Amino acid sequence: MVARINFAHLPTPVEELPRLTKFLQGPKLFIKRDDQTGLAFGGNKTRKLEFLLADALSRDAKTLLTAGAVQSNHCRQTAAAAARFGMACVLVLTGKKPAFPSANLLLDELFGAKIIWVDDRSYRERVLQQTFDHLAASGKAPYLVPYGGSSPIGSMGYAYAMQEFISQNVPVDWIIFASSSGGTQAGLASGAHLFGYKGKILGISIDEPREKLQASVAQLASAISELENKPHNFLPDDILVNADYCKAGYGIFTDLEKNAIKLFAEYEGLLLDPVYTGRAAGGLLDLVNKGYFRKSDRVLFWHTGGQPALFASAYTGTR
Description:
The protein is globular and about 60 Å long. It has a 6-stranded mixed beta sheet, with helices on both faces. A 4-stranded parallel beta sheet has the order 5-4-3-6, with helices on both faces. The chain has helices at residues 18-24, 45-58, 73-84, 103-110, 124-137, 152-167, 183-195, 210-227, 255-268, 277-289, and strands at residues 14-16, 28-33, 63-69, 88-94, 114-118, 142-144, 174-179, 200-205, 240-242, 298-303. The protein has 2 domains: 14-44 and 152-315, 3-Layer(aba) Sandwich (Rossmann fold); 45-149, 3-Layer(aba) Sandwich (Rossmann fold), CATH 3.40.50.1100. Helix 6 packs across helix 7, helix 7 (183-195) crosses helix 8 and helix 9 (255-268) crosses helix 10 (277-289). The longest helix is centred in the last third of the chain and has 18 residues, at 210-227. By secondary structure, it is α/β, with parallel strands linked by helices. 40% of the residues lie in helices and 16% in strands. It has 10 helices and 10 strands.
């Protein structure tokens, strides 16, 4: 059994989306509210950090080290977890330091994280390794939290999220969500196998080609099943990915995201983020409009959080 520390607010609720369903005249829509996991405005990384923090503390780590974009939801929740458990936190962020921090970056600073800036993502891994080596040599006992929390240990959070969802007894034919580093999708795929979910699990790619994301998710899901001592070899073709909506590039705010954010807000009083859930919800809405689902289908959108990024200056002006 993989160690876990319970600090997320679980179970997160499942809600119907009746007004959006009526507006779209499509399948019956539901939402799983992982924006309400409780840690620093919540989000999907909190579930992963329950397992990663347990592993870090078992290794007597004193510092959490991770990397991401300037408005990384993963970094924000990692910094909050470090603060909660009395650990230091170092973040390696890609981009230029702004004159004034906002949104997730502001929260990173409030949680006391030390930030190291790199201009180009191509050498972020080198800087990350150098930082790890320096922390280790300085007696800071670093623990490297993988990008997006998407290691087999971190992804365990979503295997058990699937068990939680099944126990909520809301039968659905489809689960749709944002997929990027692959950990959330790998956990859901593994959890479906472990706990008997029979519907379809479709990741909307945020930034990766379909074949690449399928391969990485299949590898992660197989590794999770090994950790659970219930080996199963997931193949790339077992993993459903739609990469039609990521051509604009990571973090590029288009009409697709703007429209999804506006509709979820106006019809259901729900907030999405401009990078992940906005893009995934935009893909969902487009698929509904194209008749991808049957009218009789029950479709769940798994909200993975990220709303603080709405308040970053780069993402203002959603009208």
